[in-house]
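Lab notebook, bench 4. Still working through the backlog of constructs that have no structural model yet. Next entry is a single chain of 288 residues. Request: give me the structure tokens for it.
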Amino acid sequence: MYILSVLFSATKPMYNNYNQSSFPTAGLSIWRGNYFNYVVPNNWRVVEDGQFAVVLVSPDNAALTIMVGNSGLPVNYNPWQFVYEKLLALQPYDLRIGQPRPAQPIAGCSAAYEFDCTYFSNGIPCQGLAKCSVAYSYNICTMVMTCAASHQSQWANYASWLPQVASQVSASNGAAFGMQGIMAQNLEISQTEGQRYREYREWSQRTWDEVNRQRNESLDRQNFQFRENLGNVTTWTNPYGYPNAELPNNYNYYWINRQGQIYGTNNSTENPNFGSTQDWVRMNRYLP
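Model written out:
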């Protein structure tokens, strides 16, 4: 699966697509959590390191980075809506998100959009940059929001490097973003669809065989009737095991004895066994 082979690559270099001179001189360190590898500025605190999110906070609590993602979303899920919903979890006041711009996706994703955002936290105006990266798989997708924000008065100091730190994240565990559950669900769906396809194929074959059988029987009946009409005959079964007999159609009833002699009559009550030493059996009309 593409997401697992790329997004979960622990060997992928962390510091991708950034200008080193823009990073703080205090330095950065790589942290390896249970689900993600990510970059932490020195002296920053890791306040959340879970299956779905990583949150870092500056020493003075004036800045933060957020990474949060979910798998199994519809492919047409709106990135703006995803970012808005995730930032609302911070319980900000007067959250405003700008229009999307194309951006560089995080490792393992194929598309990304970034958004300027502003909000108030504890009465303090804050500003930041959020990005939604998307990885597509079958008829679902995984969306990951990375966001860097700070008090608005300090944003000029963070704007050039903190959003890039927020983007330096790669999944190292197959359960990240709930992907293992989605993979199991996809496998179940695939197996179910495969079973449905096999059932449809078998039903289609049975239906086609039945159509052919009925068509052949119809042709046999048409040929049978044509042959009888052409020869002015009717076909009768033989109760003694002899082949069916084609007899003139001027009689409505036929009888046959063990010697293969045939007696025809139009009288439904006539029985050649009366006054005869032969064992006569009435023949039945044959229709295919």
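Notes after review: The longest helix spans residues 179-231. The chain has a mean pLDDT of 76. Flag for follow-up if needed.
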